[in-house]
Every structure is written in C-alpha cells, then in structure tokens.
Amino acid sequence: MKNHKLKKIIPLAILLISFVLIGLFFVGQKIVSFESEKLAKENEQASKDANSNLGKSVRILFVGDMMFDRYIRQIAEKKGSDSIFAGTIKILSENDLVVGNLEGPITDKPSASVGSEIGAHDNYIFTFSPSIAADLWKNNIKLVSIGNNHILNFGAGGLAQTKENLRSSKIDFFGDPAGEKRIATWSKDGLKLAFVSFNQFEKDGSAKTMNDIVSAKQMNVDIIILYAHWGKEFMAEPEATIKELAHRFVDGGADLIIGSHPHVVQGKEQYQGKMIYYSLGNFIFDQYFSPETQKGLAVQLEINSKDKKIISREFSVVMKAAGQTVVSN
Fold it and tell me: Which residues lie closer than 8 Å to 187 by C-beta, 6 or more apart?
C-alpha cells in the first residue's frame, strides 16, 4: 500500500519540482535580460559621454586663387562649368566648408579679357559670369575672400553686383574693400571661427587688418583665420617684409594665416605655434606658361570641436591646359 502511494507521489513531486525549476529558469532569464539591458544602456550612455568629451571633427579646406574669366570662361561656355570642377569634386565635397580667394568681381558685364592680347591692359581686367556664384555653392565653396587687387576691376558697381550675386547663392564673404563686410564668422558643432582678410593693395591695409583681428577677438570665437593677399607674383619664397608682417598678425591674434596672390606655392612656417602658409598658388586659373603656376596647394584643417586641436593635411593640385584642375595626390 505504501509503495503504491509512493508510486503516485513521486511523479507528482517530480512534476512539481520541474515546474519550480522551469519558473526559476524564466525568472533567472528575466533577471539576466534585465541586467544585460541595463548594462547595454549604461555602455551606450558611457559611449555617448565619451564621444561628447572627445568632441566632433570639423573639416575646412582652403584653396588658392580662383579666376573664371579669359580662357576659363571660354571653357565653361563651351564644355559647361562642371568640367572646370570635375577633377576636384571629391576633395571639395568631403569638407564641411571650403574657402578660397575670388580673384575678381561677379557681374553681368561682358568680359574685357576674353580675346585680348597677352600683356595688354584688358587681359588683366576680370569679371565672372553671374552663374559662377551658383557653381561655387554647388561645389561646396561657400565662403570667399574678396580682399584682392582684382575685386574692383569693374569699380564700385562691380563690387556691389558681386556681393549681391554671392548673397543670392548663399555664399558668405569677407575682406570687403567697401568696409561693409570685412569679417565673416562660421559655426559648427559648437566651434566658432572668424575669417579676416589682409589685402596688400588696399590703402592702410595692415592697420585695417589689425583692427579686424581685434574685433574678431571680441566676437567670442575659438579660432581667428587670416586670408592674406600679398607678396610679389611668381616668387618662390616670400619677401622678408611679408614674413615680418605675418609675424605681426600672429602676435596680434591670428591663429592661422593662408596666403594668396603670388600664383605659385610658397613656403610655410610655424611661428609661435601658429601655421603660416605664405601662398597656396592657383586653384582655378589659366596660367599654363610654367609648371610652377600650374601647381597649387589645398590645405585641410580637421578641428576637434571640444579641445580645438587641429590636424592639417595638404593636397597638391594641378591646373591642366584643358581648363580643369585636378588633385595630384
């Protein structure tokens, strides 16, 4: 009798124990799942905090002189403006901002330089088609310096049209010789930069630039960048007076200097921990008479938005006689 009862109890006990064990298993699984989910959230938050502390990388590319008249205008009219930029699309698009020197006004006036003789007065009088402003935007060149010796080639009216055309294409500018817009600021991911121009061919240019640097300091910016139009054309190295001037600008508060106008790449220098590129040479130009004028330099800054540390990279570009600029490295 007892054995018979045991035979009935044992299966029931086993079944009950099984239910208990299964229940414990699922409870354990829920606990493990909860702990895993909690750990995952903690790791995700820790990753976000770490990334927040690391900051984000902001990339800015600087290019040299851009001239869209004479032969370049003819190529654009014949092949389309996209052909001019085709060899640089990748490098231009990979940056948050591209900055260059606009070597002439954008007006509705007919070209004086197309068809002119080399060396003649009209050969150095530039104006660019109004469509160029949209082309710049399309190719990520959204900030330009207009502080140079060709921006007034079509007088005050040409300058006014230039600014109107740039604004209509949402392109910012700085270095305005009329004094309306001498400084530009640009911000991304908490990083704020100021862009100041120096135009050697402007009356009291150095004094105005020093005042602009002082003004930029008061704008609560992280970095002040000076884009300079200076020096003698086609010289492989900057003059001593240009170097002295660059040092004065750095002492005054400039954090980086980018040079233009000589139409050839000149040397670079680190002064007081700040980089000075004396000339980036040409970026878009029709000066094919020497290897030096056909070569240019593009400088990329990768800036950490948190600690403001800067990594710089250099890219060589070449102006081809077909009217196209290409990256050579």
Answer: 193
DSSP label at 280? B
Q: Please, are residues 328 and 321 in contact by the beta-carbon 8 Å criterion?
A: no
Q: Cα–Cα distance between 310 and 280 in angstroms, integer? A: 19
Under CATH, which number does the domain 55-327 receive?
A: 3.60.21.10
Buried-state track 142-164, b at ≥16 Cβ within 10 A, e below 16: bbbbbbbebbbbbeeebbebbbe
Q: Give the Cα separation of 314 and 329 in Å (integer).
A: 9
Supply the pLDDT for residue 54: 74
Q: Are 246 and 271 in contact (CB under 8 A)?
A: yes
State the CB neighbour count (10 A cutoff) for residue 98: 25
pLDDT digits (tens, 9 = 90+) for 39-83: 666 666 655 554 555 789 999 999 999 999 999 999 999 999 999
The rounded distance, in Å, linking the Cα atoms of 13 and 18 is: 8
Q: Which of 256, 260, 286, 280 is nearest to 270 (CA)?
A: 256
As a whole number, mean pLDDT of residues 12-36 equals 59
Q: In the structure, what pLDDT confidence band is assigned to residue 151 with cuts at 50, 70 and 90?
A: very high
State the DSSP code for 157: H
pTM comes to 0.84
Of residues 33 and 283, more confidence is placed in 283
d(CA 164, CA 309): 36
